[in-house]
Design goal:
Length: about 120
Amino acid sequence: MLRKIDCVMVRVDALEAAEAFYTKVFGLQPLWRDESAVGMALPETDAEVVLHTMDLPADLNVYFLVDDVAAAVAAYERGGCVVRTSPFDVAIGRCAVLEDPFGNSLCVIDLSKGPRQPI
């Protein structure tokens, strides 16, 4: 059911400075941006590093892409995950936060509203 790691979220205090740093030091290129985040392309993959200033819990860093969040949540719950946050709307689709049996948070996200538009 998991398709890939969609993005890694990195909390920063200064979005423009972080974008410049990740471009210069790591060679990442901006894909899209809005007022609170910028998606940075990882070379040789379609996964993104998302630099953001949003107030998200510190342990929500990796987002797994799935075809349908509601279906994924139901399947993973049957498999032993606990639902921390039921599916909710995000800019590109739906997202949910699960917890594995070891206490780790897992985010699943779908593209039901479509991907971000490139810069």
